[in-house]
User: What shape does this take?
Amino acid sequence: MSPTDTELVEKANTAFYEAMEQGDFEELSALWMDEDISCVHPGWPVLSGRGEVLRSYALIMANTEYIQFFLTDVKVSVAGDTALVTCTENILSGGPAEEAGELGPLVGQLVVATNVFRRTSDGWKIWSHHGSPVLTETEGEEDEDSPS
Assistant: This one.
């Protein structure tokens, strides 16, 4: 039995995050369409075109010693040759350490993401990625909202 479009899109979406985790720039590059792509990383402006988008991933990979994505709330919608994936990226990452040979401090963050895929002759490719940070309340903010 051949996989459904939804399953193929889920597989392409998973491959995108696995390439990031493994720091595999070639694989990550192969997952994107060749033209008219866009990307918004949390806190960044819109990046357009293959050169800008892939350069951003090269920078992220070069400055991130460790990254792991735990995807939750994954929803896939397919309409003809276009697919939309929404998910929450539960990210655990660590940057370069101050001392050689050690991993920098690990940081966790939540990002909601929208990944748009297009069907090509080479399978489903990423057309656009948009990630937005999820704002969480700090303890001080929770106390301010509590009744006295």
About this structure: The chain has four helices and six strands.
